[in-house]
Write the structure tokens for this entry.
Amino acid sequence: MTACHCGMTLEQDRRAPCAECGTTVCASCSLEFDATTYCRWCASTTALERTA
Ligand SMILES: [Zn+2]
Ligand SMILES: [Zn+2]
């Protein structure tokens, strides 16, 4: 059983890993931009850069 960076235990769900860093995160840490899934850490950098 793995855990998200925020400490939430990850269930065996269908969360896609972050497109940037490949980390699987929990639902509350997963964000979607342009139909691409990012973790909230990459979303605050990569995704926001792309939309800027
Ligand atoms: Zn990421
Ligand atoms: Zn999380």
Observations:
- The chain has a mean pLDDT of 84.
